[in-house]
Design brief:
By secondary structure, this protein is of the alpha/beta class. The chain has 9 helices and 10 strands. It has 2 domains: 133 residues, Nucleotidyltransferase, domain 5 (2-Layer Sandwich); 172 residues, ATPase, nucleotide binding domain (Nucleotidyltransferase, domain 5). Helix 3 packs across helix 9 and helix 5 packs across helix 7. It binds 5'-O-[(R)-(carboxyoxy)(hydroxy)phosphoryl]adenosine and zinc ion.
Length: 340
Amino acid sequence: MSKKDIIILGIESSCDDTSAAILKNETILSNEIAGQKVHEAYGGVVPELASRAHQQNIIPVVDTAIKKAGISKSDIDAVAFTRGPGLLGSLIVGTSFAKAFSLAMDIPMIDVNHMKAHILAHFIDDESKDKPNFPFLCLTVSGGHTQLVVVNDYNDMEVVGTTRDDAAGEAFDKTAKLLGLPYPGGPLVDKYAQLGNPDAFSFTKPVVDGFDFSFSGLKSNVLQFLQKQVKQNPSFVEDNLCDICASIQATIIDILFDKLVPAAVHFNIREIAISGGVSANSELRTRLEKEAIKRGWKFHIPKFEYCTDNAAMIAIAGRFGYLSGEFADQGISAQARMAI
Ligand code: KG4
Ligand code: ZN
């Protein structure tokens, strides 16, 4: 290992995935993720159970990440952790672990904003794709957030549009729940939609000023639509599942692009990225590619493993903090709400 190499341990525990990653310069050596099956029975994440599962998972996950990276604990130069936003009890587990690790190994620690990290995942070395150039416009779509962000630099980001109610991931999950699909429904809607007709049914799209989004109307519209149809045909959902999923998914993606396209024009930015869990959606990825070709945009789609929550993105965000000397001290605490 060359002396100039910087090795960072990343820790992510903001929701229901416990993850640890080892980053060498801008290359990921390992990215371990332990999901939490315990929430499935409840149709959503139960915060108390999530923090308990993080406590059980964190040490084995870090241990495996170090082993898989083929390094030893003493090679690590710094530990980066998600400070927020997220579930407080879950964040506290990762934050406490990072503090203890930093103290025990006598290395600095870097606090990371989870939403910034989703965007900075685009800077992980990947020989199959170029890294974005500044400024670029990023649509960050996850289970908790929907944001349009002008990214001027690694640490200079401006949110220019956000959701007024549900996040795009919630729109997927809540409508999936109405169809009787288990949590999280987003990936299942994606799967069934691939076999369906997106024009089979039409759902309402909100009218919202500026670059903000709204998804709560869609949820109510789908609920009313299903209640009406099921009255006439009790097996309507089973008979039409793929078409319903394709139509809901197309509406969510239209709502996103109805703001992304004018924002790109307004800010005169022709380099567009997507990030966050919903950026794993196959139709969203295809649509971005099509729009980019049509409009002459350069576009950036994250690798699947860096879309949903992972510690690789925390480690790369930590690297930029490390390089600019922005370290946290032992007095730092986790923060459930945190602006970019
Ligand atoms: O970024 P993430 O892992 O966690 C948060 O920070 O919220 O995002 C999780 C969200 C969930 O709502 C999940 O249903 C959605 O991402 N998701 C998808 C897909 N994969 C994950 N939504 C639609 N299509 C997918 N393929
Ligand atoms: Zn996330």
